[in-house]
Amino acid sequence: MPHEPQPHPADELDAEAVRTWSSLALAALGRAREDIDAINVYPVADADTGTNLYLTAESADRGLAEAFPEVTDGTAPTSLAEAVRAWAHGALVGARGNSGTILAQLLRGVADVLGDEPAAPGERAGQGPGGLLARALTRAAEEAYAAVAHPVEGTMLTVADAAARAGEAAGAAAGTAVDVARAAYDGARAALAETPGQLAALGRAGVVDAGGCGLVVVFGALWQALSGQEPVAEPVRGRAVPVPQSPDPCAQEEDGPAYEVIYLLEATEAAVGELRERLDGLGDSLVVVGGDGLWNVHVHVDDPGAAVEAGVVAGRPYRIRITHFGDERRRARGERAQRAVVAVVPGEGLAGLCGEAGATPVLVRPGEPPAVAELLDAVRRAHAREVVLLPGGAELRAAAAAAAEQARAEGVRVAVIPTRSAVQGLAALAVHDPEGSFDEDVVAMTAAAGATRYGELAVAERQSFTSAGICQAGDVLGLIDGDVAVIGSGLAETAEAVLDRMLGSGGELVTLVLGPDVPDAVAERLETYVQQGHLAVDTVTYRGGRYSAPLLVGVE
What we know:
Shape: elongated
Oligomer: single chain
Number of strands: 16
């Protein structure tokens, strides 16, 4: 049940104020998201800034509600510090796009100040609520600027800075928290109106900055939460200055990187410093936010696999999202792609590979299969009239079917191809024909997947009975079509035995997907083994990346 904003004392800054601010900001962004999407031209004209801000705010609000379930029945958390930290963490783990990632860092800056527990109630460096709020807004702007590799004026960073400076002035004049919030809101609105003159792309299109527009909504919600009054005006909508719009504003950015890559990353601060340098050389629009071991990474690149690999070098990336801007630009023009593919894959390298092939990947980690909501989200992100869904495992077929059913109710034609392994998904992708008819494409992809026998090598965790006999902990298990067929002591030897059995009934192509800890020498040995024993069979090798099995084998 959504939180109902409560009347609030004029100069009290507590957990209930944060909860009210969060609820009001989410509701206001929900009302404004389409207007904000419509004026999104920078850094990429993909018409999703309002949506990304809303989804980030939704995740932040959910994080706060989950941390303090009692909030939903009208009672307040006991600690302001705990509330703001939960709010900022929720934004961090659910940040979407460039604008949402920056918003997450702004909330972290607020939490860094308001989350600093005082020695006694009301005592924080001798400041009252007004001065404390002003300092929090200043920290938020500073941290947001620091998170962006190459800050640009005329964006939401400019709006955040102007709001912070206005709030500081009000706080220095011994203003209340309401005074500071009102000053920040007015400062943000004034700065937003100036953005078309600061950023050429906005001036050409005749719009204000979309991210800045969303930030004005958030500051308006802050003032309303503390004062109980409606914001003095709606955020600037549509065109802000009478400059003719170019015939195709989307075309202005089509020479930029082709992909947006976002992931959460568990890593040290030192490793993240090196990651920033590496990603800065790969693309642009780099924003890395977070701290204390958990980060949200956002970058625009032409090589999404390299961006993910950089995260693997730095630490443990997960919740990887790869978006192709061609699809987003079609959406910006009100168009849907005719057809798209969504592929569930058990490895970061495979996710990058599928992304490069034009599919929308869903990364699955061992023991953490994606839920129906995650698959449905991927279908929606594909933004196509027709979607082919590759679940990649028998255990995911029910979730895939449920997601497909919900998507069909939204008007999307969805076909689920019952792939049981990632190698079957790769085979299906190889014959995918987006220009042909939907039915013919689905039949061809289904046939290619069905004609691919699949194998997997795994390490036994304990003694157990298998279809090939009794295995001991540490044994290498060779599975063929889901059943244990070989029990061995070494990876390479067991893989050769699996290949012998799989190629016994013929084959033209062997696909090997190596896990993160498997040396290249194993791949070379297996390639040579196939070449010597089966002269007419070709071999292709991929790196599965983190979360991939030690070895996946496909025979077509």
